[in-house]
Design brief:
mainly alpha, 168 residues, 3 domains, elongated
Length: 168
């Protein structure tokens, strides 16, 4: 297909719908840049296909799973997966990147403690927890909307409103 403004090959193809009327726009690289369109070649593959990036990350983690071993007690990651028990405190450091994924799945996406603190605790840490909880709710809301889970998104929106109210 050719550019609407010249005879070069079009690299950007856009369908614009305004007031129920659709119009197609085909632009070459030069005219696309001038019009402010991003060129498809310039976008990182992870942005275009996030599913592919996620699969590549999981495949890389599987290679680490087979070779990960605790230096203190000698426990392997497959042995941990089978038993569900770590061998010693050093296992937390040895398996840290892999454990983060397990903990996040087990805790529905939470990676940090956000519960109550003992009395007399640090109020700065409390503010950090509130900020972390609000950020997690925002991420969850965005993913719910992207997945078209509108009822879940409405509940998350209502939870977010409690953070924005002056009483919290």
């Amino acid at each position: 297909m050719k550019c609407d403004l010249c005879d070069k090959a079009a690299v950007v193809h856009e369908i614009i719908i305004r007031n129920g009327v659709s119009a197609e726009v085909h632009l070459c690289a030069e005219h696309a840049i001038a019009a402010g369109y991003p060129l498809p070649i310039e976008q990182p593959i992870a942005d275009i296909f996030p599913q592919i990036a996620a699969v590549a990350k999981v495949e890389g983690a599987k290679g680490k799973e087979r070779t990960a071993r605790c230096g203190a007690c000698g426990l392997t990651y497959p042995a941990f997966r089978k038993s569900g028990h770590l061998g010693c405190p050093a296992c937390y450091d040895a398996f840290s990147p892999l454990l983060d994924q397990v903990i996040e799945r087990a805790q529905a996406g939470a990676t940090h403690h956000v519960g109550r603190s003992p009395r007399g605790g640090d109020s700065g840490a409390s503010a950090e927890r509130v900020f972390a909880m609000r950020a997690k709710l925002m991420r969850d809301l965005e993913s719910a909307v992207a997945a078209e889970q509108y009822e879940r998104a409405a509940k998350l929106r209502d939870e977010l409103k409690t953070f924005d109210s002056p009483t919290s």
